[in-house]
Amino acid sequence: xxxxxxxxxxxxxxxxxxxxxxxxxxxxxxxxxxxxxxxxxxxxxxxxxxxxxxxxxxxxxxxxxxxxxxxxxxxxxxxxxxxxxxxxxxxxxxxxxxxxxxxxxxxxxxxxxxxxxxxxxxxxxxxxxxxxxxxxxxxxxxxxxxxxxxxxxxxxxxxxxxxxxxxxxxxxxxxxxxxxxxxxxxxxxxxxxxxxxxxxxxxxxxxxxxxxxxxxxxxxxxxxxxxxxxxxxxxxxxxxxxxxxxxxxxxxxxxxxxxxxxxxxxxxxxxxxxxxxxxxxxxxxxxxxxxxxxxxxxxxxxxxxxxxxxxxxx
Length: 314
What we know:
The chain is mainly β. Helices cover 4% and strands 54% of the residues. The chain has one helix at 2-13, and strands at residues 47-55, 65-77, 80-93, 96-111, 114-129, 155-169, 173-180, 186-189, 193-196, 200-207, 209-210, 216-226, 231-241, 245-252, 256-264, 269-278, 289-298. It is globular, with a radius of gyration of 21 Å.
């Protein structure tokens, strides 16, 4: 068993260049649009800040833990109708810890279909590992001399990262398209072990449906991402009451069914929680995934306590 285990790890790690580095996933993907689409910056005309924590596959050793801070707002930069944004992400899984910082710009223009934002994302991505190798029997293992493609100690590298996106928003719907890691930066870990940032493509769309009772709205949305080898699709339906209370379901194909709840206060403060019920083969090994967020929206041109249309639900 020990020999088989070591062989599998040797094979996987010696081929690091073929392993796809994917972006973290979120159940509240309508809130995290800015992390993958710079065209979203300034799309609601307010100043917005978001802190989100995701704990994926709770109870599973080495499971992903993601922390996101993002902020964006509308501005007249150089006399142009624009949006600017900032994203800071920390993503931990196994013995890997990645931190990225990106700056977003969107040129915004009104069209007959809605307001369009389009622009780039420029930033840096730091990948670091600090591995400890163990066999299933609990014995520590060190790569033999000559196995220079297997990182045996702490290593990290900083890389330039580039993205691009477009986001169209009207009163009743939104459509987004973007790509991350355009330059597919190569990252050297240790002497010769290599990894790289795989280019990911995103499509998102949503619609606001007014129900017979004006106090209720239905918000269906779809969120797709692919690295052109595999794909992931989320289908979400939110029911919103008085533009402040929300409850919803998110179905992620071959992965999970997510329950989402949220609340928005009159002063622009919002918070929410999502629980993922795992439907994949990991269902018997984890208690599910958890996601929490806190956000704040501010309109500098109005009284902070004045009611405004919810930006959470477009």
